[in-house]
Amino acid sequence: MRQDLPGICRRCLGRAFAMIGSGTTNIERGNIALTKFENKNQNFEIVEESNCSICSGIFLRLMDYCEQLSLMSKDYEFNSFLIGSRFPEEILKLEEQIQQSIEGSNGESIRKEFNRELGKAFESYSPKSTNFNSPEITFIIDTNFDSIKLQVKSLFIYGTYRKLIRNIPQTRWIKYSEITDSVESIIGNVICPMSSGHEFFLHGAGREDIDVRMLGNGREFVIEITDPHKRTIDLKYAEETINNLGKGVEVHDLSFADKQKVVEVKSERNNKTYVARIRNGDSIFDRKLLERSLESVTGKAIYQRTPLRVAESRSDAIRDRRILEAVLLYVNGSEATVEITAEAGTYIKEFINGDGGRTKGSLSEVYGNNLDVLELDVIKIHRGA
Ligand SMILES: [Zn+2]
Q: Is 253 annotated as catalytic?
């Protein structure tokens, strides 16, 4: 018997023949393969698993691993998991070389078998089940350093928010560091501790300016909590707690969501209705002229060059947007209140004030004087059909 290759166990031999039917284990495959080698020039020695040059008996220690996984994850609420692993490069190379020399091609990798077998073992050890698509906890076993890392899926909660007072930014921007509250922090500071999470991030379906109120049916958002220890939190209680803070932000329709919902929410392109309090400088509004102006912009496209105030964060471009409806609510001297429905992405302040000529077809241009926006509210986001 030639022994050019280091000793391997039946299991590791079996992986070289992973293509032999399914429904059989690698140890059984190894046994079948051995009969094939009988009376032939076998250039390897079969050894016990614990002496195997590839696996070193790691499959004999699955129960130890299960105990470790269980201990590491004991403070986390989860139902689904996935096993991942890293093996030393030289072991993977040796395995490849042995498989090539025995079968002339590559069989199954030790990583794959280990992940599968430990997964099965942990499923019978604990009440948890494997999930390949979106596991709540991923265990990464690094056999190089005999270390195990835990990756915990974020908790995603969907809802809508209303911002009833001005001067609250949507997220915790450094720019507004003197302002302590944001929509994000008001919601996150309640939900994050409830789930014993680490950090939180608000993903909004667009954003209103800091000085704009968000009324009506509210804006959709998903709040993401990283490293949550609890996943089944009482959302009704969370909603009531946030709404009773009296901080000017309300949430509604909270529900558990997933990462895909973040993508959906962030790609929202709904029309919006605004109410704006505007000013005609020091001049009294000409009611008839204002009404005619609003009528004439209705249904028309306007052309907006990226406003200077947002040019820092967005590239300079000209976008065309349609004003779907514009009506006068009331006039009081040099001030008026108008209701405007516009396509998603319209810079509504600039539609009114003309942005120094950067918006073409503005209300200021049509009315024939520079109109200012004193206050702006979003009163409806037109979701769904
Ligand atoms: Zn082995």
A: no
Catalytic residue among 4, 75, 181, 209, which? 209
**Phi (first) and psi of residue 336, to 5 degrees:** -145, 160
Residues within 5 Å of ion ligand 1, judged at the Cβ atom: 9, 12, 52, 54-55
Residue 254 CA to ligand 1 center (angstroms) comes to 51
205-233 residue pLDDT tens: 999 999 999 999 999 999 999 999 999 99
260 and 285 share one domain: no
- Pair (65, 97) in one structural domain: yes
Strand 80-86 to 137-142 pairing = parallel
> pTM of the entire structure?
0.88
Model confidence pLDDT, tens digit, residues 134-169: 999 999 999 988 899 999 999 999 999 999 999 999
In angstroms, the CA 63 to CA 43 distance is 33
- Expressed in angstroms and rounded, the spacing between residue 52 Cα and the centre of ligand 1 is 5
In terms of residue numbers, what domain contains 303?
Answer: 272-381
- Ligand 1 centroid–CA 126 distance in Å is 26
Residues 160 and 131 reside in one and the same domain: no
